[in-house]
Amino acid sequence: MKNLITDLKTFLILWSTQSLSQLGSSMTGFALTLWLYQKTGSALQTALLSICSYAPYVATSIFAGAFSDRWNKKKIMLACDTFAACCSVIVLFLLKAELLQPVHMYLLNAISGLMNSVQQPASDVAMTIIIPDKYYQKASGLKSLSNSLITIFNPVLATAVFSLLGMEAVISIDLTTFAIAFLALLFKVNIPSGQERDFAKKESFIETVRSGLSYLNNNRLILTLILFLAGINFVASAFDAVLPALILPKANGGEAILGIVSACAGIATLVGSLATVLLPAPKNRIRVIYLTMLFSLGTENFLLSFSDSPILWCLGQLIGWFFVPVMNANLDVILRTSIPLEMQGRVYSCRNTLQFFTIPIGLFVGGGMVDKVCEPLMRSVAVGSLAARLFGTGKGSGAAFMLFLLGITGVIICLIFGRILQNYTYTDYPEN
Predict the structure, then answer these.
(1) Residue 227 sits in a domain of what CATH number?
(2) Which of 46, 211, 320, 383 ranks highest by number of CB atoms within 10 Å?
(3) Hey, CA dihedral for 279, 285, 291, 292, is it positive or negative?
(4) Mean pLDDT computed over every residue of the chain
């Protein structure tokens, strides 16, 4: 344990302080959603906050690696974090001046999303530099652990501070956590420079982007894994859009139950992250990736679609989300050990675009299918019919039917890509 802490000292400082800052930013995002809904009463306008944040991230991620591979990773992270913090300062100023409007929040969220698209590949490469090879899986597990804790505590803390002290207090906490992370990165974290390729600086911007896409085209295992996860993200994001429509209208549902069911996802990822840190490396990481997703998507969607019991809803979340950090850890190891360090920035950026562009699509499809197709369809079925017995009656039955469709879709995606991935082999450290 002592050797572990010593070897990972730099990573632990960076991980802990950045996670703290992420918690602060998440609290601000959650509280702003509450504030905007109170102001407008519009679910669409509040949803646009996430869309405005995510759209620039997806659209620009493919180009962001060019910056990451050309310039110093630490400076990129410091600059992007500073821009994001400035957005929070502007929100605080407008709020205090009683001038804050939805359009301001959309614009500032878009800027924050843009900064995140540049910061993330630089951070990913920095992690590769400072983490010894043999600790990749454990480090990935720790990252999943912090993400799980943020998922659990973010809505609780944000709601409490927002209700008791107001929006200004939430943003002040966010800025405090940013300051801690910024100072730690600036003075306590050494990310060796000179890892960038000399010829990367001689490449044109377009050539740098093209080289990332070319690498993926020539490395079909990584490309196939990315496309597989794009399919998984489509199903998962559609699930996120459907879940409130399932639970809120139910007689044994409501806001409190939705909060409990959502918290189960964070609890499950927390336990899964701990398991990832403690478990030895599997013999076949590729098989672990698609089998965990097959079990997760199949079990979770079907349990929720066929049940009106909050206990089973929670069980579905616990089973489904437990395997997410397990999958992520194995994917992370494959990427870090397979992609040359000098290529990771641009490849990670291409990955972000290809893997995550399905998320906004899934959100729109999930919500649209429930409102326009599934709920009207379920209203037309007879009370004693098979569909009514399986998915229930009344509002929320259409959402249950949609989850059933998502379960089938997820299983098909896993089976198809599982068959394709069986053609590939992978060894953690082939040079050894």
Answers:
(1) 1.20.1250.20
(2) 320
(3) positive
(4) 83
CB burial readout 411-430, b (16+ within 10 A) else e:
bebbeebbeebeeeebebee
Q: Examine the domain organization and report whether 169 and 263 are in the same domain.
A: no
Distance, in Å, from the CA atom of 161 to the CA atom of 156, rounded to the nearest integer, reads 9
Q: What is the pLDDT of residue 60?
A: 76
Which residues in the chain show pLDDT less than 50? 42-43, 196-200, 430-432
Pick the closest to residue 192 from 15, 20, 61, 341 (CA basis): 341
One domain, residues 274 and 176: no
Nearest residue to 233 (alpha-carbon basis) of 318, 93, 327, 309: 327
Burial (CB count <10 Å: 0-12, 13-18, 19+), residue 352: buried
For residue 200, what are the CA distances in angstroms to 63, 64, 120, 415?
A: 14, 14, 19, 39
Which pLDDT belongs to residue 197?
47
Q: Residue 283: what pLDDT?
A: 84
Question: Whole-model pTM?
Answer: 0.72
| pLDDT for res 53 | 78
